[in-house]
Design brief:
Helix content is about 50%, strand content about 15%. It is α/β, with parallel strands linked by helices and about 325 residues long. The chain folds into 2 domains: about 130 residues, Response regulator (Rossmann fold), CATH 3.40.50; about 150 residues, Alpha-Beta Plaits (2-Layer Sandwich). It has a 5-stranded parallel β-sheet with strand order 2-1-3-4-5, sandwiched between helices. Strand 9, helix 10 and strand 10 form a beta-alpha-beta unit. Helix 2 runs parallel beside helix 3. The longest helix is centred in the middle third of the chain and has 54 residues. The chain is rod-shaped and about 115 Å long. It starts with a strand and ends in a 5-residue tail after the last strand.
């Protein structure tokens, strides 16, 4: 529990000594003022639990001090008890209350009454102090909770990203590919717009792993995935890793001719990587075979039919010697 500061204001030293004697107890710090002006000055430097204020003082009287305190944001809520020998009836008491006093004490002071009334305001001060501390602790807890919430949101975003992307290449994984492909199929069906699919397979990748090891194999997959990703330019185009060395590109609103152009760029860009491949019977560097298919979805087809067509085109590319792009119709 903190120290409660009490300001006593009186122009007569003997009255201040009397007040000090009655107030002196552990937990209370007494600040003295001999005038209204000095009292107001102290209020700029201290946070008082209570002000004991004489009414009759030369210069600025107690009523003026109280009115000035009530007009100041810092001091307007400090309790004021008028301590006075002046008794001029109810009108004078009402003036004190109108000035902002919470109580009146008349001299000579009754020690028991004085200490009881002062004790109420000291206790209120400590309650206010405890409430402010609890409020501060609550604000800190809220700030901590907000920070934890932000961390949780970041973690959820990371988990979501991990759940939809391939951990090695950063492309969409097969599960997310299937989700997005189904979504694009339904959209193309509603809009009666073309949808194209490209499937890419690294030629003789097993031989590459056998020759250079799996670490180099992973490096190769990352470079090929980057080439695939950088080939697609539109935000709506999606690239994914759908198998060990197999990739796919979904091209919404794209006819077969446009898909063939993208497919050839993929093949060419991978070839330009110039990744050495001594185990390939078709090239000294890594190459890919590419299959492409396109359709305007109707009730006669489904997503599987387009995947089968693109797979058939890929199989055809491998049959033609690899490092080539081929197309197939949905009837394949």
């Amino acid at each position: 529990m903190g120290i409660a500061k009490v300001l006593i204001v009186d122009d007569r030293p003997e009255n201040l000594l009397t007040l000090e004697g009655l107030l002196e107890q552990p937990g209370i710090e007494i600040i003295r003022a001999n005038s209204g002006e000095e009292a107001l000055a102290h209020m700029l430097d201290h946070d008082f639990a209570l002000v004991l204020l004489d009414v009759q003082m030369p210069g600025m009287d107690g009523y003026e001090v109280a009115e000035l305190m009530r007009g100041n944001k810092k001091t307007k809520h400090i309790p004021i008890i008028f301590v006075t020998a002046e008794v001029k009836g109810k009108a004078q008491v009402f003036k004190g209350y109108e000035s902002g006093a919470v109580d009146y004490l008349f001299k000579p002071l009754d020690a028991h009454i004085f200490q009881s009334k002062v004790g109420v305001f000291i206790e209120l001060f400590h309650h206010k102090e405890a409430l402010e501390q609890k409020s501060l602790e609550l604000d800190q807890k809220l700030a901590e909770l907000e920070e934890l919430q932000q961390q949780l949101e970041q973690t959820n975003e990371q988990l979501l990203l991990l759940s939809i992307t391939d951990g090695l290449t950063g492309l969409l994984n097969k599960r997310q590919f299937n989700t997005n492909f189904t979504h694009e199929w339904k959209r193309a069906y509603r809009n009666k717009s073309p949808l194209s699919l490209i499937i890419i397979d690294i030629d003789f990748f097993k031989a590459y792993n056998d020759t250079y090891g799996h670490t180099k194999g992973d490096e190769c997959l990352i470079k090929v995935a980057q080439a695939v990703s950088e080939t697609v330019k539109r935000d709506v185009d999606l690239s994914a890793r759908i198998g060990g060395e197999e990739f796919a590109i979904i091209l919404p609103d794209t006819e077969l001719k446009g898909a063939q152009f993208v497919a050839e760029r993929v093949r060419s860009n991978v070839e330009k990587l110039a990744i050495q491949h001594e185990g390939s019977p078709v090239s000294d560097t890594i190459t890919v075979s590419v299959g492409t298919a396109s359709v305007v979805p109707t009730q006669k087809e489904d997503t599987v039919s387009l995947i089968k067509a693109a797979d058939a085109a890929l199989y055809k590319a491998k049959g033609e010697g690899r490092n080539v792009c081929c197309t197939a119709s949905l009837s394949c």
